[in-house]
Amino acid sequence: MSPFRPIYRVLFALAMLSLAQPSFAQKAAPQAPAVAAQAPAPAVQRAPDADTDAVATPTDSSRSQKSTTVALRELSPWSMFLSADILVKAVMIGLAFASLVTWTIFIAKMIELSLVQRKLRAALAKITDSRSLAEAQFALGEKDSVLLSLLSAAMREARLSAGTSSDSGIKERAASSFAEIVRAEARRIRLGMGLLATIGATSPFVGLFGTVWGIMNSFIGISKSQTTNLAVVAPGIAEALLATAFGLVAAIPAVIIYNHFTRVTKGYLELVGRSSGATGRLLSRDLDRTHVSSHAAE
Asked: Which of 1, 28, 210, 237 is the most exposed place for a label (fewest CB within 10 A)?
């Protein structure tokens, strides 16, 4: 028997034991969580002199996050309006009313201008082939329009000036009557546009006044609370800025609508000027016919 054989057996046994240890660890591993679960959790002991506000537990942090989320959700325009100062509320209500007036004027003037332009164009088309004031008045009928007023003024001046020999005087007096009718029509058609100009010019400053007042109250609240936390400062500033937003919402449409109606009104007044010129030509023809008939009678 070889003297090294027992040594070989001992080495072989040690090698087998080393191979068997990993499988044993794998079998014993699933039992570790159970043992760990049975072990009691170590209690957190606080020092008696510790500041309770300095230690933040997970529950406190979750509650603060939830409260912040709720506060952010409550910052809607309606909630900001309800929580605003009484003066800021009055500014917002006034600007909202101004915006309502702007859109009311827009709808009313759009309907009015479209109707009067269509009516005046149709009236001018009817008297294109008329040879006298009476014929033009008969062609128009009883429909009320600025052209009919011009024709009536011309016929009235011709009747009142009957027997005079100065045609230039008759035309001058008729032109004066035409100018008065045109100015009256311009004032009537521009009705409401001054209010649009006022709203467009003053609404941003009114909103800015509400913003300044609201920010002033916010700074007073900050000084009283002695904190600069954004969650405390932001709601008051947001309420103040809402007044500026109301001012811009009222001013921008008013300026755009005013500029639009200025262009449309200018086009309509050009039609009124054409009507005045057409009436003056008819009056001149009637005067010439009068002189021709008087010379023929002689």
From this structure: 1
